Amino acid sequence: MRKLSVGLLGLVLALTACGGGTTTLAGPSATTSAPGSPGGETIVIGTANFTENVTLGYVYAGLLKSKGYTVTVKPNLGSREIIFPALKKGEIDLLPEYQGALMAYLDPDATSSDGDGEAKALAATLPPELKILPYAPAQDQTVWLVTKETAAKHNLKSLEDLVKISKQLVYGAPPENKTRFIGVVGMKKLYGIEFKEFKSLDVGGPLGKAALKNGDVDVADGFSSDPAIADNGWIVLEDPKHLAPTENIAPLVRADKVTDKLTAAFVGLNAKLTTDELVKMNRRTDVDKEDPEDVADEWLKSMGLV
Amino acid sequence: MLELLRQILAWFADPAHWTGGDGLLARLAEHLEYSALSTLAAALIALPIGLAIGHTGRGAFLAINATGFGRALPTIGIVTLVFLVSGLSLWPVYIALVVLAVPAIVTNTYAGMAAVPRELRDAARGMGMTGWQRLWQVEVPVAAPLILAGIRLAAIQVIATATMAAYVSFGGFGRYLFDGLAQRDLPQVLAGAASVAVLAITTDLLLAALQRALTPRGLRDTRKEAHA
pLDDT tens for residues B32-76? Predict the structure, then answer.
């Protein structure tokens, strides 16, 4: 889950912090229709302003095009605070969402659960004009990371293992993490973890990753779909008490666009869309700086989905 | 608006916000440390450059433009870049602040030296003063007001920008800005901004007084007459 802070700080950080702020070179919108399907149903897909979400938008677009829809993609529209109202107003029809973060946006007091639980809670909470379609196994979840060396030295596998030695460790995370439940507050409450020191760094950006790599911090928070985890051999600490909500990826769509055909298309996609596959696509867009639309199209072909 | 003002005042009135490791006094000490060390380091680099090009009249174009380049670099970019090389330390903060402060001091020092009247230099030379004596006994005293104005300008810029230290996990008043924005705590953000402003204005007034005190009497008197 990537909480994109709006406002001045967001603007400032976007210049440097967010690895995938605006890497797409595509224009504000690009309309393409499947050949031989004039007058097919039209769908406008919007995406949030970070690369993973843009790539997912193009994955959805390629999939629906192959099913005969006329699809328009509007990438990089902004944070959830901007795109959710746009969807509600009908300016866009569909967007790739993260179930846990969407639930937290709709109801800040919602308790986290597994993918099915989140889907049920969303179905009950969403306004009648919106529907959440079946979710994929792929997640972009908040995770807690340590280096291989730290894990070996203290024999760390899960957040529970941290309790004994947390008072000797330095924790690096964005400043809001200090007062947030999915952060310092929840770690203490659920696990009894209290760190020696809190280092305020950036949100899934270059600072936190560099600090973990250099050993300036021992534990850092990150995102499960970040290719840097595998590239650096970092260990994701297990979270047996589910401090971080599950963040399965699911299409959020206007109810008047939902048909059996549309749902079936996403069920087919979900069978292939795992976190590992998402990490692969993120590596191509964020590390190799490839165009999200090309990456999405090639991925769909390689999976036999189009 | 009035409610917001009340919240800011309430924030300052809370004694818990003044003491301890993240209280205003500790943050003030950190902010002063970053600002003072950066300005001092910038002065040690910039003054010799400014004096040398001012005294010899050579290399001004190169020196002014090379240091002025620092003004065009975004501070947050320098901080991030140095961080990736140096790791978690205060180096990114100090380097970025020094890069910011040097141009103002070089430019003002050179301007002050260039404004020393030609007759004065000629007279000093005619009296048989060496280059070193002319620099310290004639040129620097005459250029002092502008040189000090440059240091003053640099110090104010540095104080306003030292908030960047919080971006890479350190303290200073910037902590209130970054934490407050991330935690959606507007009174904390505004209290931090007000603290920076008060510190900047206070420093400006103190340095202005120092500037007056260090201006040679002769120059001061001339100015007074001119104003009279």
Answer: 999 999 999 999 999 999 999 999 988 888 988 888 888 888 998
Distance CA A294, CA B117 (A): 67
- Dihedral pair phi/psi, residue A171, rounded to 5°: -110, 130
Average pLDDT, chain A: 86
Among residues B96, B93, B97, B106, which one has the least CA distance to residue B43?
B106
Record the tokens describing residue B63, joined without a space: 């020196």
**C-alpha–C-alpha distance, residues A137 and A263, integer Å:** 16
Instruction: Tell me the whole-structure pTM to 2 decimals.
Output: 0.74
Check if the beta carbon of residue A27 is closer than 8 Å to that of residue A54: no
The DSSP code for B74 is -
State the pairing for strand pair A70-78/A42-48: parallel
pLDDT of res. A44? 97
Place of tokens 């500037």: B211
Interface of A with B (CB under 8 A): 5, 7-9, 12, 15-17, 172, 174-176, 178-179, 199-202, 206-207, 210-211, 214, 216-217
